[in-house]
């Protein structure tokens, strides 16, 4: 069975429910729009998977932190939000954003308000073409597009530094300051090199724009070169972000692991999802590699209010995200089984409209649950 993801397994966390049996508590933050629909689908599949395998336990608690709460109470999170989520082993997050709330308010009010203080500095986005799906790239076999994008998730262009002054005047001014610290750059580079080392190709591309951004990006490049000395077994290179977009389209097989800044990886990872077939299949892990805080797992497709309530949202991104979470928690066999079930379903033609099918969210969810049952025997072992 091919592994479904590239995130390293846990060293072992959580409490013990019974001798040799682990129990994981999961915080659910469905958020807005289709986030609510796909997170509930993910919970159904995870419960079914845990019951079918019967080697670990999952418990869930849902939080109503959303734009609806913001419009009612004036804030997305309660004052003790961080203390509340720190009680959990992991967080599954749906989406944030509503048509009548400015995007910068919703993003900084919820998602970034959790990621930054919880030091989830490594955003990991695996991308590959699933069985039964096709890439919009002509003549691109499944194995030619198999990437991991590592995104710096705590500073850079999204550090939150800057401001506006003289508002309403002709001389009004706004600044958005990118922050690159040695600590922040080094830790994400080490994580990226370790990720590349764990994959067969052992190949890392460091994305930059140091030809034009002569301070922060040159600093970024220099830290990469310094860290690379500790990984002689990893082949690495650097590439300008604009050139990287063309390479992703024209030479997908030449790419394996990518590391980029907060902004650059944000853009490249959405392109990657589209090239793999749909943003509706793309997972994300917001990781604190130190494991001092819970990590947060989310599909990257956003709230998509244009299809909210129609029952057509693709839950595959949430299922893949859930598999990434299981792997991070130390359950790689469960993660592999879940992704095998997902790909068996997509390969059978049961797909939502974004993948060229006509299945509803609930139909894909039920099909994955049924496939999990087929793949497990009565004693909880794979057949």
UniProtKB/TrEMBL annotation:
InterPro entries: ICDH/IPMDH, IsoCit/isopropylmalate_DH_CS, IsoPropMal-DH-like_dom, TTC_DH. It catalyses: (R)-malate + NAD(+) = pyruvate + CO2 + NADH. SUPFAM superfamilies: Isocitrate/Isopropylmalate dehydrogenase-like. The keyword Manganese applies. PROSITE patterns: IDH_IMDH. Its cofactor is Mn(2+); Mg(2+). GO terms for molecular function: D-malate dehydrogenase (decarboxylating) (NAD+) activity; magnesium ion binding; NAD binding. It is an enzyme of class 1 (oxidoreductase). This is D-malate dehydrogenase (decarboxylating). It comes from Phialocephala subalpina. The lineage of its organism: Eukaryota, Fungi, Dikarya, Ascomycota, Pezizomycotina.
């Amino acid at each position: 069975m091919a592994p479904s993801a590239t995130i390293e397994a846990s060293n072992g966390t959580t409490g013990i429910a019974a001798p040799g049996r682990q129990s994981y508590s999961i915080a659910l933050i469905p958020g807005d729009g289709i986030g609510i629909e796909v997170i509930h689908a993910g919970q159904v599949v995870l419960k079914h998977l845990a019951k079918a395998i019967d080697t670990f336990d999952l418990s869930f608690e849902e939080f109503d932190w959303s734009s609806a709460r913001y419009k009612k109470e004036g804030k997305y999170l309660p004052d003790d939000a961080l203390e509340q989520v720190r009680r959990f082993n992991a967080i599954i997050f749906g989406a944030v954003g509503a048509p009548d709330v400015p995007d910068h308010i919703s993003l900084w009010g919820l998602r970034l308000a959790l990621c930054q203080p919880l030091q989830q500095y490594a955003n990991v986005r695996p991308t590959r073409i699933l069985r039964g799906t096709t890439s919009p790239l002509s003549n691109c076999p499944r194995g030619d597009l198999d990437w991991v994008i590592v995104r710096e998730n705590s500073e850079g262009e999204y550090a939150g530094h800057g401001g506006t002054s003289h508002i309403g005047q002709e001389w009004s001014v706004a600044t958005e300051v990118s922050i690159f610290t040695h600590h922040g750059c080094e830790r994400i580079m080490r994580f990226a090199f370790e990720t590349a080392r764990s994959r067969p190709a052992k190949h890392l591309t460091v994305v930059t724009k140091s030809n034009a951004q002569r301070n922060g990006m040159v600093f970024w490049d220099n830290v990469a070169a310094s860290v690379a000395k500790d990984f002689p077994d990893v082949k690495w290179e650097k590439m300008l972000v604009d050139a990287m977009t063309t390479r992703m389209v024209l030479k997908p097989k030449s790419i394996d692991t990518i590391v980029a800044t907060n902004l650059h990886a944000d853009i490249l990872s959405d392109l990657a999802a589209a090239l793999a077939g749909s943003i509706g299949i793309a997972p994300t892990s917001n990781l604190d590699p130190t494991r001092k805080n819970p990590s947060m797992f989310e599909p990257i497709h956003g709230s998509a209010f244009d299809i909210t309530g129609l029952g057509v949202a693709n839950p595959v991104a949430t299922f893949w995200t859930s598999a990434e979470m299981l792997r991070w928690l130390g359950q790689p066999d469960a993660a592999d089984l879940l992704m095998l079930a997902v790909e068996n379903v997509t390969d059978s033609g049961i797909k939502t409209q974004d993948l060229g099918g006509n299945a509803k969210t609930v139909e894909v969810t039920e099909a994955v649950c049924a496939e999990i049952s087929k793949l497990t025997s009565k004693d909880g072992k794979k057949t």
